[in-house]
Amino acid sequence: MKKFFNKLEAKADALSQEFLGQASPSKTPVHQNQPSTIQPPTSDDIFRYRYHHGANLGSIFVLEKWLSGSMFPESAKGESELDAVKASVKKKGIDETRCIWENHWRSAVSQQDWDWFRNAAKGTSIRLPVGWWIMGGSEQASRLKGTEWAGLEDVYCNAWTIVREFVATAHNYGVGVLLDLHGLPGGANAEDHSGTSSHKASLWGNKKNLTLAKQSLHFMATEIHADMHGVEGLQIINESVHNAEGMYDFYSEVIEIIGRVDESIPIIISDAWDLPTAINWTQSRHPYNCRRNPIIIDTHRYYTFSDKDRASSPQQIISTIPNELHEVNPGTLCEKGEVQIIVGEWSNVLDGQTWTRASPQEKDPLIHQFGLSQSSRWLRKSSGSYFWTFKMDWMDGGEWGFVEQNKKSNILIPPFLTIPFSDIHSLISNAQAERQVACGQARGDHENYWNGTTPGEAFEHHLFGEGWEVGFEDAMTFFGARCQGRIPGGTGCGGDRIGGVEGWVKKRVLESGQRGKYAWEWEQGFRSGVGCFERAVGILQC
C-alpha cells in the first residue's frame, strides 16, 4: 500500500508541480483565462454548501438489530438486514414482508418528527444510509442475480421510490439529505451494518462486487441529476476498512463515473480510519485537471470502542476534543489543494468502564460537557456533522439518541440557525452599508502587503477586488436564503453560512475563469469577502 501511495503522490506531483505549494506568484499555474460563468447561488447550491447540522437516520433502509430489533423475527440467524429479510420471507412470504418493510421505511419519520427536527433541533440535514440492493430500475433483478440478495427483489421493488419520496419531503421542510451508500456489494467493511453478517469486507479485490458498486453509484448519480432536489451529496462508501487494497483507485474511478453524469454533485469518501492519508490524497488532485465535483472526506468520531477510551476517564476524553481534527488546516486552493471534511457519525456515548472513573453524580454534567465540546469542535473544523442517530425502537435513545441529547441541551445548535428573520434583514442591511469601505480596506491591505513583499512585481490586484465582491455577495446570499424564501419551509428564524467553504471556493475559482499567473489574487479576495461579511453579521468561525 505504501508503494501505491508513493506512485500516486509522484504522479500527482508531476501533474500539479506548479499548483501545489505556497500561494505566491512563482507557484501559481499559468493557463489561459476563460470567460466567467459565475451565477448567483441556487437553492441546490445552498443545500449542498451550507453548514450541515444534522443527524443520521440509521437502521431504516439498512437494518441494524440493536436499533430496530422489532424488524427481526426470532428465527433470524444474525443481526444484519439480510438476516432479517430472509427470516421474514421464510416465515411470512414475499408479499407480507414487502408490506412490513415498506411500512418501516414510510413511517420512520412522521410529520411531528419533521416539525421537531426543523423547529426544535434546528436540523438542516439528514444522512440517510442505504444499501446497494435497493437500487431500482429495470436492471434491479439482474444486478441481484447471483448474489446473496437474489430472489428478494420483490421485497425491495419500491424501496428507491420511497427514498425519493423521503428526499422530497425533507426538501419541503428545508432539510437536505446526504445519500450514503452504507451497504456495498460484499461489504466495504466486515460489520453487520454493511447489510450481511458475512463478517468479511469482500468488496475489495472482487471485480464483480466493484462493478456492482459502480453500477449502483451511477444509478444514484443519474437519479440525483434528474430531479432529486435537496440532495446535498452522494457518499460513495461508508467506513471502509483501513488500508483496503485499491481503495483510492476505486475512488478515482467512481469520481469519474459520477462526474460524467453531473460535475455539480458533491462526492463524499471514507477516510478509512486514516484522515491524514485521505487529506493528502484529496490535496494531490489538481483542480484544473480533474472532475469539478467537490470531494469531501467523511470521518467518524467515537470514544467508546477502543481499549484506550475504556482505560480513560470522562475528563481525560473530554480534554482531547479541542485537538481533534487538527490535521484539517486548509490554506488556499493554490497553496494546499482541496481539503474538506464532514463528521459523518458521532455520539455522546462513553463506555461503562470509562464511567467507573467518575461518580454517578458527575455523569449528567460530564455528558453535557462532552456533547458541547464535540459539537463546538465539529462546527469549527468541519463543513457539517451528523449525530448517530435520529430514530430507534428505544426512543429517546440515551447518549445514542439525537432526540434525547437535544432535549437535554447536550448538542450545540449553531447560533446562526436561531437568528430571527427580522434580525437577519437588519444585519444584511448594516453589512451592505459597510460594504464599500470594507472592500477598499481589504484591497488596500492586500496591495500594500504584496507590493511591499515583492516590489516591482506586475500584480493584477484588481482580481482581489473582483473576488472579494463575489465572496461577500455569496456569503450574504447564503445568510439570507431562508428569510428571502430561497429555502423551503421557513419558520421565522435561521440564517445559513457557507460551511463547505473549501468546495465552494473551488467551484467559484473554476467558474471565475481565472487561470493566469495571478489567479491566486482572485481566490484570496474571494475568501476575504466571505470572511468580511460573516464578521459583519457576527457568524465568522475563527
List keywords for this structure.
542 residues, alpha/beta, TIM Barrel, 2 domains, 8 strands, glycosidase
Question: What does this entry show, briefly?
Answer:
The protein is 46% helix and 10% strand.
Could you characterize the architecture of this molecule?
By secondary structure, the protein is α/β, with parallel strands linked by helices. It folds into two domains: 31-39 and 419-537, no CATH class; 52-413, TIM Barrel (Alpha-Beta Barrel). The chain has 19 helices and eight strands. The protein has an eight-stranded parallel barrel with strand order 1-2-3-4-5-6-7-8, surrounded by six helices. The protein is globular, with a radius of gyration of 24 Å. It starts with a helix and ends in a 5-residue tail after the last helix. Residues 102-349 form the Glycoside hydrolase family domain. This is Glycoside hydrolase family 5 domain-containing protein. One of its GO terms (biological process) is cell wall organization.
Question: Which helices and strands occur, and which strands form pairs?
Answer:
Blueprint: H1 2-16, H2 43-49, E1 52-56, H3 81-106, H4 111-120, E2 125-131, H5 140-144, H6 159-172, E3 176-183, H7 207-227, E4 231-235, H8 247-261, E5 267-270, H9 275-283, E6 295-303, H10 307-310, H11 314-320, H12 333-336, E7 341-350, H13 352-355, H14 363-381, E8 384-387, H15 402-407, H16 421-453, H17 462-480, H18 501-512, H19 519-537
Parallel strand pairs: 1-2, 1-8, 2-3, 3-4, 4-5, 5-6, 6-7, 7-8
Query: Which term fits the overall shape?
Result: globular
User: How far apart lie the N and C ends?
Assistant: 37 Å
Percent strand equals 5-15%
Q: Could you tell me the radius of gyration in angstroms?
A: 24 Å
Task: Please give the share of residues in helix.
Answer: 40-55%
The protein's oligomeric status is: single chain
CATH topology of the largest domain: TIM Barrel
Walk across the major sheet and give the strand order.
1-2-3-4-5-6-7-8
Q: How would you spell out the order of helices and strands?
A: HHEHHEHHEHEHEHEHHHEHHEHHHHH
What is the domain tally?
Answer: 2
Would you state the CATH class of the largest domain? Alpha Beta
Average pLDDT reading: 93
Family: Belongs to the glycosyl hydrolase 5 (cellulase A) family.
GO molecular function: glucan endo-1,6-beta-glucosidase activity
InterPro entries: GH, Glyco_hydro_5, Glycosyl_hydrolase_5
Keywords: Cell wall biogenesis/degradation, Glycosidase, Hydrolase
